[in-house]
Amino acid sequence: MKSFMDMSQDELLTLKAALEEQFKTEEAKGLSLNMARGKPGATQLAISMPMLDVINSSSDMTTLLGNDTRNYGDWDGIGECRQLLADMMEVKKPNVIVCGNSSLNIMYDTVVRSMVSGVNGETPWCKLDKVKFLCPVPGYDRHFKITETFGIEMISVPMDENGPDMDMVEEYVNGDSAVKGIWCVPKYSNPTGITYSDEVVKRFANLKPAAKDFRIFWDNAYCIHHLYEEIQDKIPNILEECEKAGNPDMVYIFASTSKISFPGSGVSAIATSLTNMEYIKKFMTTQIIGHDKINQLRHARFFKNIDGLNAHMKKHAELMRPKFQAVLDILEEELTGLNIGSWIKPRGGYFISFESLPGCAKAIVAKCKELGLVLTGAGATYPYGKDPNDSNIRIAPSFPTPEEMGEATRMFALCVKLVSIEKLLNA
Amino acid sequence: MKSFMDMSQDELLTLKAALEEQFKTEEAKGLSLNMARGKPGATQLAISMPMLDVINSSSDMTTLLGNDTRNYGDWDGIGECRQLLADMMEVKKPNVIVCGNSSLNIMYDTVVRSMVSGVNGETPWCKLDKVKFLCPVPGYDRHFKITETFGIEMISVPMDENGPDMDMVEEYVNGDSAVKGIWCVPKYSNPTGITYSDEVVKRFANLKPAAKDFRIFWDNAYCIHHLYEEIQDKIPNILEECEKAGNPDMVYIFASTSKISFPGSGVSAIATSLTNMEYIKKFMTTQIIGHDKINQLRHARFFKNIDGLNAHMKKHAELMRPKFQAVLDILEEELTGLNIGSWIKPRGGYFISFESLPGCAKAIVAKCKELGLVLTGAGATYPYGKDPNDSNIRIAPSFPTPEEMGEATRMFALCVKLVSIEKLLNA
To answer: Nearest residue on chain A to B125, judged by CA atoms?
Structure first.
């Protein structure tokens, strides 16, 4: 099909009428599909089921160090699970605290702690007139929600295929002492799927923050979540790079097994410098006597080591690839050459990020909803839920089947075309 | 033996010499026993092991409402687990949020949320010059540690066998708008074991707080933790009483299964008014997508209902009673009539609270340590770890065996005698 940009008003009107007929047919199907969140699909949950047999009533419940996982103790996690997550996060075991089931919870607690008690003895953020966070966009809505909830001013930083605009990051971080943090998903980013380049990571490590209590919130949520065996993105170790650059305490790394074992019943961790850990310990040991060590033992024994984790991730990848492929194939087939949208083919992670014509995203999402297709709310990938271009749409292909994803994407493409035509006709 | 108070200096010196010989003998044994914390013993952990078979790889993982416990969702807990804990906490299911593995964590989060974001729209506590909490004493050290960590001023309120001194509570709460909370363990209190009387509970519900954002932190940790079948303490329902008194939002109730299933791998809950829940929801849904629902399912299916919980608690009681009895028997045998200490026989909970002569608790705990007997640090049961009388010692009989408890208590009594004599000789 030829580019919408090259069509006459008449051509657009004719096409519109045809698409509207098609829309009515689709509408009549009464579909109900949810592509709103990065929820693992049923087949993915199934591959982790054997984990539930690993610990049973006849299991030895003690850790390698001989601690009883059924009783109080080990506030920072059992040794074997710390080792497992350290290897996954590519850091050393002493730098890891294994927590509960949610890395989002650790991030939230980290922000709250900084608000009420400060960072390593600096003034609590709640006592300051202004606290700002940088938010590479498009990004993860739940990150932005945390900073919004605590009245932290969010500043959008554009992303390209190498990561955030580092000139802008450096200008803000090095120049403004009210800038206390930045939200990052460095690998297979949510939602664009891009991985930060080596240069970007190193520029992060070499920041010279105006604020002593500036911290990088490095949410490495998709660290081993590759889609392909032959292309696996690697990023430099941010903790080591920060150390080398004389900024040993500047980063908190977060990760979890939510999309490895079970969302909601996995284990999560924070990795950071020993100095930061010492400060965190003071609060965490007041907050909780210890996290769920039986579940930590379950994970450590099921996965055994990083090879076990990677082998398990291969199974996930096999289940995810056809879903991603279905989306990419249909987008390609339906929209290539029309000049009404662009997308990136991700090499890992959970999302495909779609850029529509400016001012069309909200209308596309609304139109999809009329067809029974639920997408992440347009704007969600921006601070305050406001996409200034109204153009970014996050597609989460994990939950439906590949067949459903294909069908859903065809409907999505239909809505993109319809809304784009309306936009062009009204321009 | 006659009262130490009636002994002459010579008699005391003679006895001292004999006790010191005994001490040397005991010291040589090189014992190592920990009675510091309310840790369930090995036999108690064993009775919950069958719970680990309830969920396995062939289990149906959906809730009664058909939600998949392995995936995201149900931020307030799965229905059947909410019902189970509602029945345990004697409240209605809609008033319950089931959280993670730790009620202490919910309490900490509740205080932090109030600090940084206020209570139901009131001024955040961190913006106020002064925030005060009432602390019935002796009380639970981990409660006091939370308020201490956030610089909240703690005011001790004496307890008697009916609960806190309510005249004092009323005077502070109704008269001082800086008083924002009170820590309560209303049943089988930590550490005294006493249960609040009906009148005390009702006076709590009928407080007329000077501060709109005053809240009762009602940690019903031992709600079904009876030691005897024939005497089971009951307390009026504080949530209902508060409603009746026109204070529907004044109380947060906390509980967990830490001392029912596994410490660290149980489930915890908060119960409160729907208005409070609505406010909490805003923060909790930012903090976490959902708690560990597989573990909630495990608990709901294992215990089935409140009868299942109570039947399980009977087994715990059978294991706990001989340990408590061993302590009480030896205290009785060794110390009765000496006028150097007093204690209460608890009807439930996890502790026996010992009152030594004033100024002796620290020295007794130190002396016990020389014999390899670790007790909770003297003073821990008071705000800031400072017992003004230096007289309260918390004994936790759950972890050792009954035989060990007997032996340990005999050593404890020896130390009490020795330290008391030294005190009397130096008076």
So the answer is: A116
- ipTM comes to 0.97
B301 in contact with A, Cβ within 8 Å:
no
Q: Please answer yes or no on whether B149 and A117 come within 8 Å at the CB atom.
A: yes
Query: Would you call the peptide bond into B191 cis, given omega within 30 degrees of 0 as the criterion?
Result: yes
Q: Does A301 touch chain B (CB under 8 A)?
A: no
Name the DSSP class of B356.
E
Instruction: State whether residue B105 sits within 8 Å of chain A by CB.
Output: yes
Confidence of residue B37 (pLDDT cuts 50, 70, 90): confident
Nearest CA in chain A to B68: A42
Mutation site for A-interface testing, chosen from B146, B261, B286 by largest number of A Cβ within 10 Å: B286
Is A75 an 8 Å CB contact of chain B? no
Judged by a CB distance cut-off of 8 A, whether residue B135 touches chain A is no
Q: Are B180 and B213 in contact (CB under 8 A)?
A: yes
Q: Please name which of A28, A147, A129, A288 lies closest in space to residue B145, comparing C-alpha atoms.
A: A288
Query: Taking CB atoms and an 8 Å limit, are A116 and B116 in contact across chains?
Result: yes
Q: For chain B, give the mean pLDDT.
A: 97
Does B59 sit within 8 Å of A45, measured CB to CB?
Answer: no
Please give the Cα distance from A141 to B164 (Å, whole number): 46
- Cα distance from A116 to chain B (closest Cα, Å)? 6
Distance from the B149 Cα atom to the nearest Cα atom in chain A, whole angstroms: 8
Task: Say if the Cβ atoms of B288 and A104 lie within 8 Å.
Answer: yes
The arithmetic mean of pLDDT across residues A228-242, rounded, is 96
Using a CB–CB cutoff of 8 Å, tell me whether B66 touches chain A: no
pLDDT score for A1: 74
User: Cβ B53–A56 below 8 Å, yes or no?
Assistant: yes
CB B259 within 8 A of CB B40: yes
Which residues of chain B neighbour A124 with C-beta distances below 8 Å? 126
- What percentage of chain B's residues is helix, strand, coil (to nearest 5)? 45, 15, 40
pLDDT tens readout for residues A381-421: 999 999 999 999 999 999 999 999 999 999 999 999 999 99
Give B122's DSSP letter: S
What is the distance in angstroms between the Cα of A26 and the nearest Cα belonging to chain B? 28
**What 3-state DSSP class applies to B367?**
helix
Question: The tokens of B241 are what?
Answer: 């009483």
Over the stretch A321-372, which tens digit does the pLDDT of each residue have?
999 999 999 999 999 999 999 999 999 999 999 999 999 999 999 999 999 9
Does the CB of A37 have a partner CB in chain B at under 8 Å? yes
**A72–chain B Cβ distance below 8 A for any pair:** yes
What confidence tens digit (pLDDT) does each residue in B97-108 have?
999 999 999 999
Contact yes or no for B265 and A45 at CB 8 A: no
Q: Tens digit of pLDDT for each residue in B210-252?
A: 999 999 999 999 999 999 999 999 999 999 999 999 999 999 9
Structure confidence at residue A37 (pLDDT): 87
